[in-house]
Amino acid sequence: MITKNQVKYIQSLSHKKFRDEESLFVAEGPKIIAEFLAMPHMQAVEIYGTPEWWANEPAGRTAEWAKEISESELERISFLKSPNQVLGIFRKPDLSVVPGGWQLILDGISDPGNLGTLIRIADWFGVQQVICSADCADAFNPKVVQSTMASIGRVEIVYTNLVDYVRAHAHRNFYAAVLDGIPLKDVRQHGPSALVIGNESHGIRPELMKELNHPVTIPRHGSAESLNAAVAAGIILSHLVE
Amino acid sequence: MITKNQVKYIQSLSHKKFRDEESLFVAEGPKIIAEFLAMPHMQAVEIYGTPEWWANEPAGRTAEWAKEISESELERISFLKSPNQVLGIFRKPDLSVVPGGWQLILDGISDPGNLGTLIRIADWFGVQQVICSADCADAFNPKVVQSTMASIGRVEIVYTNLVDYVRAHAHRNFYAAVLDGIPLKDVRQHGPSALVIGNESHGIRPELMKELNHPVTIPRHGSAESLNAAVAAGIILSHLVE
After folding, report:
1. How far is CA A26 from the centre of its chain?
2. Does the residue B97 lie in any domain?
3. Full-model pTM
4. Per-residue pLDDT reduced to its tens digit, A8-17
């Protein structure tokens, strides 16, 4: 059973303002929920599962966050086109990453799917921190959470002014993904550094670009004008992270 | 002005069956339309532009395919959430690629956005042919066309039975993106070859995998379970295409 107030509360979590105030977010589907429940630092606040989900998840039956709801109730609360067995409300993770490893810096990534894919790429390459400009999509937007495939539980996301951030860390190496930089294979490795990826249409803002010391380009052999931001990040990290 | 019949005709092009029968497809937005119009082998059948589009595209004014429509008419025919100045109907390109270069082989890529991004990646790396299993999304689906960013006009797309295809080309080298293959940096280069990418959830089908001689893995440094199919393709091509 789910009450009208619970439905309203869950729907309100589609708004960034409310997610920030409550420090909560929503995730959906058995796979991502199972991954979150297995992470010691992730705190479930409510889990709403259909009988199909509960049949495979007997461990949680007595937990205080456990609720069984019907398929049609799930349809009322889900943010997905095709609701998928379970919806969970989680506390935003508190991942205080020790500085020193690789970072991914995102300047104006506005598409939630791209942001989610970028966070998943960071997690694949062991990049524990993603630093976002204030105008990036919100990492706890339900669409972003879904496309991170649970990586949002393992990667720290920080929103800040990137120009100030880079100036404050001027001793670090900042690689910038651009169309007219040093070919990727000629780039010198400097140990853990930061990779900066710009907006899908406009690239890295000029005022930020001025601060970056290593422009990098993925050699083009054909005719496409550009690569998708997430694909570019994956390619560059695959060449530089050791 | 646009007639009811024209609206119906354009809407019917959202269906694969009709696109196949007519050998036509739809593209939208000034950027992709301008790129298509500049390709000598691309044939425009109709272009419906708003006054805003025509203001910047005076060259086409007298062309037989030229139509001016209002914003609200564009809204009626557009497949986009935010219609963008112009919609064009084009003949599917006839790109008869000379065999010998790199190929990208896609086994069950079902998401239109992923397929479009993969075609764009192929175009970036000079891969002129994408070979798709019959259950891949249709490359001329409007969503795929938009996410190729005009690369669909430069890359030949072939649908076929992949097991038969690979068996018929057994002298070639087929790299397969898998989670338990040879680490990418240890992979031997064999000159132009084919890269096989599997379905987003299930990977490459076992009956196809049996036929592939070079399993390749992108080393993982963190914890994400997998990489997005398009990101994996981009990373592997960036290491192997020379």
Report:
1. 13
2. no
3. 0.94
4. 999 999 999 9
